[in-house]
Amino acid sequence: MTRSTARRALAGVATFTLGSVLLAGCAGGFDAPTGSGETARTSLTAALPTDPSSMDPIRSGALVVLSVFFHTHDQLVKIAADGTLEPKLATDWKANDDLTQWEFTLTPDVTASNGEAIDADDVVFTYETILSDPSGENYAYLSSLDSVEAVDATTVRFTLKQPFSAFPRNTSLISIVPADTYQDMGADAYAREPIGSGPYVFDSITTGVSYDLKRNDDYWGPAPAIEEISLQPVSSTESRANGVLSGSLDVAQIGPTQVASVQAAPSAQTFSAASNGVVFLGVNSTAGPLQDVRVREAVAKAIDTRAIVDSLLSGLAEPAKAMIAPAVEGFSDSVQPVGYDPDGARALLAEAGYDGTPIPFDYATDGRIPLSSEVAQSIQGYLQDVGVAVDMRGADQQSHTLKVRGREMQGVYLNTWAPSTLDGDLPLTDFYETAGNNNYAQDPATAAWAAEQRGVEGDARQEVFAKLLDYSNTQGYFVPLYVPFNNFAAVSGLRWTPRADGLYDFTGTSFE
């Protein structure tokens, strides 16, 4: 098997120009070959942002682990880099008239890497096992599912509790296990030595260090060009950038502040593309001055999102029109943004009789939103410029998240939402339905539209999304700020298309 002449294990990495941060020493990855030559590279090392909690697809639903499972296991469908749905284990799928039943036709003659056949019974076992544990990480993706059955060896029927047009997208996150093998081994043993039917198999697992994969030569589908993949947890964005620049990593997600330095290096390249998330201001429309829609509209008009993107974020984002990003199903170009209008904001505040009462502004000082403190301070400046006083309340990410989940905000707050299914149903549930963490308005109209979109498809569904998102903008229930970019550093010569959700899929990747 040909390996890269440039491969180096992380254990011997020195610091590089982005700072005095050492990559953690580790023993993962593949050995460099002996000899020389100009053959195309076939080994790749990529950084994971965190360490996966488990290699058991039944029990682990964290997004980071999907970057592993997309290579080692099959899912019924696949979300492509551009957000569209593609066949994977399933060749096609269709629903009944009221969208309460979905049938998936499976590829025949698929086997796991140990030779066990993968058919409808294995799909049923996987889904039923997840459904049997409501506390499991994957259960939320299947909360609409009532039952699943094997119609025949290559047909699976899902019966839902209510209509759900986006159900196929949820199946893209569920990895199918070989039922007999899983039961014979038991969950714990399977997590130590997972066996799937994907294009790669596990070569070794060293928790916290590396997850090393080799190409599955018996894979039922097209063979990927990359023969070996080492996925290695590296938590620091600076360390990940250093790793690419020093050659110990081939690709890694980095923060916006690292992009310019990587671009300046002759041995590296960057990939930056709009993500599936929206950074926004949540609004407690039932508290203080924000009870007046004119004050809420003024807050939205006061903020120059284009300036924040161009200056503070160095252009590595795009202003958001609505609470769903363009890469997400349900986004509509017809939605009208509020727009930057400081004079209009001042007029609305005067009309509303706003008396300068400070509005609490909660934000996380670290964590999920890069440069969150700087973004919050910029917004504070814009609000003060039109006469809105704010009480800044910075907190660590964990404390901030707990307040969001407890619906404890008293004014406006900085937050972000990126649906793992790349479908608008998930954020709509949280923003506009009764139990949503971010739903302070409790408006029956938004709840009705959020439910309505599940029972329709195509243009009819798009119309519901557009109506709801426009209404949300005019009511000032949220202030969409910007769609951040996913930024990656990579070695020169890597041919790769990043996904909007920031996860890895190297099945179509190669080196020049």
TrEMBL record:
What are the recorded Gene Ontology BP terms?
A: peptide transport
Task: Name the UniProt key words of this record, in alphabetical order.
Answer: Signal
Q: Which PROSITE patterns match?
A: PROKAR_LIPOPROTEIN
Q: Does this UniProt record's set of keywords contain Signal?
A: yes
What Gene3D superfamilies is this protein classified in?
A: Dipeptide-binding Protein, Domain 3, Periplasmic binding protein-like II
* Record-annotated Solute-binding protein family domain positions: 85-438
The stretch of residues making up the signal peptide is: 1-24
Question: Does the record's keyword annotation contain Membrane?
Answer: no
What Pfam families does this protein map onto? SBP_bac_5
Check the record and name the InterPro entries matching this protein.
SBP_5, SBP_5_dom
Q: Which domain of life is it from?
A: Bacteria
Name the Gene Ontology molecular function terms of this record.
Answer: peptide transmembrane transporter activity
PANTHER family cross-referenced by the UniProt entry? PERIPLASMIC BINDING COMPONENT OF ABC TRANSPORTER
Which protein is depicted? Peptide/nickel transport system substrate-binding protein
